[in-house]
Design brief:
Elements (H helix, E strand, L loop, with lengths): L2 E6 L6 H13 L2 E7 L10 H11 L6 E6 L3 H8 L3 E6 L2 H17 L4 E6 L9 H9 L10 H16 L1
Parallel strand pairs: 1-2, 2-3, 4-5
Helix pairs in contact: 2-6
The structure holds adenosine-5'-diphosphate (ADP).
């Protein structure tokens, strides 16, 4: 069975991530979407909320499993016994960051292989950080994210307002 891990913050998941997940699902028998608790980034959603939204968004894809991890990705990969990492590329500027990270992961564990999938150009302008910005400023993010993102963000807002 060919397995891979697609790690990321997914804060929130976007149509660009979905595109990479669909491409990776065509190549692997099992794809673990691993939500990282990213302490260096200001997050919009908690890790549990991100996991919940991913489950809602990907319930129809039987090859996908949603999980989360703390600490180093290489340690998580070892624990899972999966040594292929999938990452997405949008632009040249992604490349430098991704290249550095792939080399670092390889230095930490030489059995780790990172493969890169290129997004459809129609998603190349979408990033979680721009979605966060548009959302916090009151803009409509629905064209750029799967439906459960909007539904859950509205629910979270309602809960906050009722407190
Ligand atoms: P991280 O904080 O680990 O970079 P992200 O959730 O922002 O996590 O992204 C996870 C992966 O998905 C990264 O490889 C990133 O380059 C890729 N990615 C993000 N947005 C897109 C997109 N619109 N199209 C293709 N890949 C994307």
């Amino acid at each position: 069975m060919k397995k891979a891990i697609y790690p990321g913050s997914f804060d929130p998941i976007t149509n660009g991530h979905i595109d990479i997940i669909n491409r990776a699902s065509a190549l692997f028998d099992k794809l673990i979407i691993a939500v990282a608790s990213n302490k260096s980034k200001e997050s919009l959603l908690s890790k549990n909320e991100r996991v919940e939204i991913l489950r809602d968004s990907l319930s129809k894809n039987s090859k996908v499993e949603i999980d989360s991890f703390e600490g180093l990705l290489v340690d998580y990969a070892k624990k899972k016994n999966i040594f292929t990492i999938v990452r997405g590329l949008r632009t040249l500027s992604d490349f430098e960051y991704e290249f550095r990270m792939a080399i670092m992961n390889r230095n930490l564990d030489k059995s780790i292989e990172t493969i890169f999938l290129m997004t459809d150009e129609k998603y190349s302008h979408i990033s979680s950080s721009s979605i966060k910005e548009v959302y916090t400023l009151g803009g409509d993010i629905s064209p750029f994210v799967p439906k459960p993102v909007v539904r859950n963000l509205n629910k979270i807002d309602d809960e906050k307002n009722n407190k």
